[in-house]
Each structure stands twice: as structure tokens, then as C-alpha cells.
Amino acid sequence: MKEKGLSYLIVGPFAILLAFPFYVMVITAFKNRAELYDPSVTPYWFGKQSPTWDNASFLFHETQYPRWLANTAIVGLCVVAITLVLAVPAGYALARLAGRVGQSLGVGIFLTYLVPPTLLFIPLFWVINQVHLQNSIWSLVLVYPSFTVPFATWLLMGFFKTIPAELEDAARVDGASRLKTLTRVVFPISVPGVLTVVIFSFSLVVNEFVYAFTFISPSEHKMVSTGVYTDLIRGDLPEWGAIMVAALIPSIPLALLYNTFLDRFIAGFTGGAFR
Amino acid sequence: MEALAAARPRGRRLTNVFERPGVLASVLISPAVLFVLLLVGGPLLIAIGLSFTNATSGQLHGKWVGLENFRNEWTNPSFQSAVWHTFLFTVISQAIVLVVAGLLAHALTKNFPGKWLLRFLILLPWAAPIALSLMAWKWMFDTSYSIFNWTLVHFHLSKPLEVPQYLAEPKLAMGSVIAVHAWRIIPFAVVIFLAGLASIPKEVHDAAAIDGATGLRKFWSVSLPLQLPIATVALLFGIVFTATDMAIVYILTQGGPPPSFSTEMVTTWSYKTGIEAGSLGPGAAISLFLLPVLAVVSIAMLLFARKAEVS
User: What mean pLDDT is reported for chain B?
Assistant: First the structure.
């Protein structure tokens, strides 16, 4: 009982502190514009004219926001597809077939995930200009797998290690070929792991800022993470209410998915390394 | 008919080849490896190549200038202070992250009602897209309408015209950037810590209980030493994520405030030189100064991975 109380005492205040900006986001998103700039209205709650949908309606009717959402969705789906095609077979083979070499190769691939966009954006900008993909979302579809593939391969390697090899042995004893074992036995059980990789890869895409900021300037080709900052905030009078709606819409579903899949993520992440 | 008969044995030979684990493994692994080599290794080599030239975004193929870009930056006061700021930014924010995340993860291993909600709230800063959650920080640090300053004035802790300008005063700006970055990384470190704590076998706790170790004593002599390896992993990641981050600093201060540019980092300086000013060669040279940090962290990780494998 005493230990539980202590947990609340530590976790509670930090939870409030860490979530506070999101609370401000929600209040600001649904607050009347005039009340935002009125010091007699507390910033911690709504005034008499709030809550209101005005900011949301401004965002969807007067800005390019729907376009940015669509661009982000297209890039996200394409990148996830490329990632799965490359990482699922590689993750499986590293966990099962390649032995000790596989372990080292897996660590090697994972280390490339640590090479940050801030080190590669200038040469990649150079490449994108050479192949005339500047200002196109396809430049991002080409570049983003460079960090989703290492990340996903590592996670999948961890997942495949947690699936008992006996299942496959049984299928092989029954006369199935390795390829058939892979498609009929292994892939079906790995669906939860693959789903986790889909969610975390998609989340990496929505999160990315440096490449999207460097490669694309026309407003209609921007991603959510760059469009909101460059087009909605850098203007003379930022529409803070609309900006907060714009920030909330992708954040809430992503955060919920993130939480739901977190335990699986931990299992995969540590499965590759600490056993 | 004849063609079919001829094709059959060959087909079978092909399947037989796939029965050899080595062959199947290389077929399955090589596409991913080639792709990563091409898109990470390739640009890295191009960056090194560019850093020896005076290429610009208008003139993609510049002239060879040898080590001039590196020499110029090494003696450039802007670059020197950017290195110092990056160092401060990384060390201070990671110190905060380690302490807070350690405490939180430890408290979160116990079960209590409402834990799911509290964990959700704690993870928000890491789970939400950073460029978007920074909008809330920009608004909270606003020069005229900051919620912090409203509170200070409301409780008569500050006069309306003397309120702090969080992103416009050199030291405060650095403090703000560090605080926001720690805010962002804490949830990530909590996740890694939780993973590590989950891997401590239950017997260890039982043994500690039999020996009469409880509370602080148990934390100090049992939990903390067992947490050290995972703390190292969290720290190594944290260093990479911090030293190479650009989004937080760029969106909050753009390396400013002028004229001191107290939050200029290696990354923002490289962006300003390489992309904004279009000097790709010098820009590439600046970002390559991040490579030693990465090399040290990678070697530490490899050593750690080997140690984990042996034990």
C-alpha cells in the first residue's frame, strides 16, 4: 500500500508535467480567437465564447492542411509497403537461417539506423537534385526507407526469434519446403509483429522533419510536419487555434496506437539484442 | 508437353537450392542490405566527397578544394560555438533524462489503478510527431501570450512588462531548448528502462527479499546495478538523438536569438550553411563533424552487444 502511494507520488506529477503541452493544445484548439488574446480569460480554461469549432473549420477551409494530410498518408503507405517487402524476409533470415553471422549483420543493419538525417540531408539533397525529384513527395518515398528498413529489420528479427522453431520443424517433417513453411506457417503467426512494424514505421514517417523540410518547398507538396510549421506559423499573425487543431489531429491517433502496441514493441526491440 | 517435361527437373533443382539455409538466407537478406547500403552508405560517401569541394546548390559539381572547408570551419567562431552549444545541449538534457526516466520507470514497474492512463500521458511527448507538438511549446513561449507569463503576472510574481522572454534571451533560450528536448526524450528512455527492468528475473527480487533488502537499500544495491547496462543503452541512444537533432532547435529558435545565437548547434549551422546559403561543400563538412560522436556511440553499442551475448 505504501509502495503504491509512492508510485502515484512520483508518476502523477511527472505525467501532468509531460502531458501539459497537450492540454494547452486542446484548450487552444477549441478556444474563441478573441479569448486567446484576452488576459482576463484564463489560458487554463475556456471563456464564455468557447468551446468552438471555428478554428477547425478555418483549418480545413482556408489552408492547405487537407492536402498535407493526404500527402503524408500517401508517403506513409508507400514507405510502409517498401519497408515490409525488404524487412520481413531479411528479419526472418537473420533470426533463423544466418546463425552467428546473422546476429552480427543484424547489429550492423541496426547501427545504420543511428546515422541521422542531419548527416545525410546535404548529400541526399544533392542526389535528389541530380535525379530531378526536388519538390516532389516521391523524393521522400525514396529516402524514408533508409531509416524505416533498418529499424523494421531489427524489430522483426526480434519477433521471429520469439516464435518457437519447433513449429517450423514440424511443418518441415511433414514434407513442406522451406519456402512453403515460410508462407504457410511463419508469416501467418508473425502478423502481430508485422502490424507493430507497420505502426512504428508509419509513425517515423509522420515524425520526420529534416528531409521533408529540405527537399520540398511548394505548399501543396508539403507533409503535415513541415506544412504546419512553415505555412501556418511563419506568417505575420499565426492562427494559434487552427495550428493546435492541426497538431492534435495526427498526434492523438498516433499516440493511442503507440500505447497499444508498446509492449509488443519492447518485446521485439529487446528480443533482437538482450538474449 | 516436351517443354513442360524439360522444365520440371530444373524447377525442382531451383527449389532444392532454396532448401540450403545459406542460399535462402542470402536471397532474403540481400535486398534489404543493398538498399540500406545504397541509401545510407552511398550518401555518406557523397557527403565526404562534397566536403572536399566548393559545390553549391546552383553548381552541383564544384571544384576540389582539399581540406579547406574543414580548416575554415575549424577556425570559424560560429562553428566553434555551435560545437560548444551542442555539447552543453547533449550533456545537460541527457543528465535530466537519465534521472527522471530512471525514477519513472522504477515507479511504473508496480501495478496500480490508473497506470494505463498515466503511462499514456507520460509517453505522449515521444509518441506525438515532434514538429507538431512543438507548436504547443511555441505558443506557450509566446512573447505576449505565454501561459507561463500569464501565471507569473496573475500571481504577482512578475510585472507585466518585465516578464521573461523564453526564446529571445540567450541563456533562457538555451534553457528552454534543453528543457523541451529532455521533455521529448524522457518517455523514450522510460520505455528502454522498462524493457530492461522486465528482463531482470523475479528470483533476484525474491533473493533480495530473503536477505532483507527493501526500499532504498534494495534500490541502491540490487536494482540500480542491474539497471546499469540498460541505462547505458538509453544514454547512447539519447546522445545520438540529441547531438544530431535539428527539429527542436530549428523550430523553436532557428539557432537564435540574434546576435548571440546562443542555441546554434552543429546541425542548424550545417543547415544554414549547406541549404539556406547553398554552400553544399562547407555544409557537408560541418555535418561530418558529427561522425566522431556516432563512431564512439556505435563502438560502445557493439561492445555492449557482444557483452550481452556472452553473458
Answer: 85
Q: Which residue in the block uniquely carries the three cell numbers 525514477? A: B103
For position B5, what pLDDT does the model report? 45
Query: How high is the pLDDT of residue B101?
Result: 92
B301 part of contact set with chain A, CB < 8 Å: yes
Predicted pLDDT of residue B311? 41
Write out chain A in H/E/C secondary structure: CHHHHHHHHHHHHHHHHHHHHHHHHHHHHCCCHHHHCCCCCCCCCCCCCCCCCHHHHHHHHHCCHHHHHHHHHHHHHHHHHHHHHHHHHHHHHHHHCCHHHHHHHHHHHHHHHCCCHHHHHHHHHHHHHHCCCCCCHHHHHHHCHHHHHHHHHHHHHHHHHHCCHHHHHHHHHCCCCHHHHHHHHHHHHCHHHHHHHHHHHHHHHHHCCHHHHHHCCCHHHCCHHHHHHHHHHCCCCCCHHHHHHHHHHHHHHHHHHHHHHHHHHHHHHHHCCCC
CA A133, A139, A141, A142 torsion-angle sign: positive
* CB A68, CB A224: distance < 8 Å: yes
- Determine whether the interchain pair B187/A18 forms a contact, defined as Cβ–Cβ distance below 8 Å: yes
Q: In B, residues 251-280, which contact A (CB 8 Å cutoff)? A: 251, 267, 270-271, 274-275, 280
Per the CB < 8 A criterion, the answer to whether B122 and A11 are in contact is yes
Instruction: Determine the Cα–Cα distance for residues B186 and B280; give it in Å rounded to an integer.
Output: 34
The region of weakest confidence among A3-12, A24-33, A111-120 is A3-12
Q: How far apart are CA A123 and CA A121, in angstroms?
A: 6
- Between CA A19 and CA B188 the distance in angstroms is 14
Separation of alpha carbons A178 and A44, rounded Å: 61
Q: What are the distances in angstroms from CA A164 to CA A93, A106, B12, B25, B176?
A: 15, 19, 29, 18, 49
**Integer Cα distance of A89 and B92 in angstroms:** 41
pLDDT at A146: 93
B132-187 residue pLDDT tens: 999 999 999 998 889 999 999 999 888 888 889 999 999 999 999 999 999 999 99
Cell readout for A86 is 525488404
For chain B, residues with pLDDT lower than 70 are: 1-21, 305-311
For B117, the grid coordinates are 492512463
Nearest Cβ partner for B32 among A90, A116, A123: A90
Q: How many residue pairs from chains A and B have C-beta atoms closer than 8 A?
A: 302
Classify burial at B155, counting beta carbons within 10 Å of its beta carbon; exposed 0-12, middle 13-18, buried 19 or more. exposed
Question: Do residues B138 and A233 make contact, with C-beta atoms less than 8 angstroms apart?
Answer: yes
Please report the ipTM that was assigned to this predicted complex.
0.90
